Amino acid sequence: MAQNSDIQALHDQFQSLLQGHDNLVDALGLSLEDILALTLVAQQLVQQGQLDDAQRLLEGLVAVDPENPYLHTCLGTVYMQKGMDEDARAAFGVALAFNPEDIVAHTYAGELALEAGDVEAAVEHFQKAVELDPEGKDPFANRARTLSYITAHILREIETKGPQVLQEILQQAQQIQQGSA
Predict the structure, then answer these.
(1) Which residues, at least 6 apart from 124, have a Cβ–Cβ distance to it below 8 Å?
(2) 172, 150 Cβ separation under 8 angstroms
(3) Is residue 17 included in any domain, yes or no?
(4) Cα separation, 133 vs 36, whole angstroms
(5) What string of DSSP letters covers 92-124?
(6) What are the 10-residue block averages of pLDDT along the chain, 181 residues in total?
(7) 9 occurs within a structural domain
(8) Does the residue 88 lie in any domain?
């Protein structure tokens, strides 16, 4: 029963905090600049290898500003680095629901789809990222261009030589990653 009273007290505190404000960002007095500064802190944590701390910070920012697509994209990238692919897919999905023109989210969503074997979804995301950058200036759109080209090349190889070529390509890629090619 003590838990119910704790929950009620937390609810009352939250309602008191929100009183007179449209959202939690306003209630806390945070500006967009404040939120962006905190995302820079999260990026520094990632660069320092402190992925758990970056994840907690970004999850907190998403809780405070849940309609900010940039925060969802940032969180998705941390989830990807941690191998939390389902969570990353969900974060990119939310980012794209709020901002369908997010090149970074499209590129990473395409990579995740490709890794999961969903070539059709991967190609759709890569194509969208490329369409959003017709001048070829965005590094993530250029990454999507490269991945789209590689994917198309692999599919042509499979059509020409058969499905066994995929195993050969994967073995070669593993050798390259291990530095023995």
Answers:
(1) 110
(2) no
(3) no
(4) 23
(5) HHHHHHH-TT-HHHHHHHHHHHHHTT-HHHHHH
(6) 66 59 58 82 96 95 89 97 97 98 97 90 95 95 93 85 80 76 47
(7) no
(8) yes
